[in-house]
Write the structure tokens for this entry.
Amino acid sequence: MPDNAHNQAQRVYYEQALDKAAMQVTGSPYIRRHAERMMRAADLQPGQRILEVGAGLGKFTMPMLEAGLDVTCLDLSPVMLERLEQSATEQGHSVKTVAADVADVGSHFGAEFDRVVGFFTLHHMVDLPNIFTAIRSVMKPGARLAFIEPMARNPLFYVQILLTPGTHWSAERGIVNMRGSVMSKSMRKAGLMPGDHESYGFFPPAIINRPLAPEVEDRMNEMSLLSFGRAFHVFHGAHVP
């Protein structure tokens, strides 16, 4: 069952931050690089039914819609989804939205999705096995999921939480669970098959949005010796019949 107190705290936390620059739909290189990474990692294709968990204002949704993907957006906050719909309409896109807890997603959909994806959302959730069980219930047999999350071992995320005004440990503490061992165990408990996890990326938005920084980061991603410093994880799983 959904954790109502936790959900209410999350809604308040994000709805109070609606106008923060980091929340906005900008189409910046930082945002597009994450979206493009997801589209490659999850093999997102037109014609698939894709569920995006924790879509928020839609900053990662828009690049997927621009690529012609059929995306259904799920989020706790109807306020955020209303803004997402407005942004999509302004850019000439159609998008379906549902305001609900992902733990209760099975009451809104059947087993109809080919892909389930999420950007920086799982670390805000409490009971990962329960979350993955709910997600599995709306996946077609053979469907795949992929979530991009912060790298748990990267100390810069903890520094960011400490120094960023309005950011609270209570909302971000799930970062410590963003490890391959924890995610694989949680998926298996839910009846999902974990896939190989991958890491990438080094630079925050303030750097990656500058000229030439994407090319530098691409070269760094190719260097295995620098893997210890990577900032992001892609966690994969599948609904194997």
Remarks:
- The CA atoms of residues 196 and 210 lie 31 Å apart.
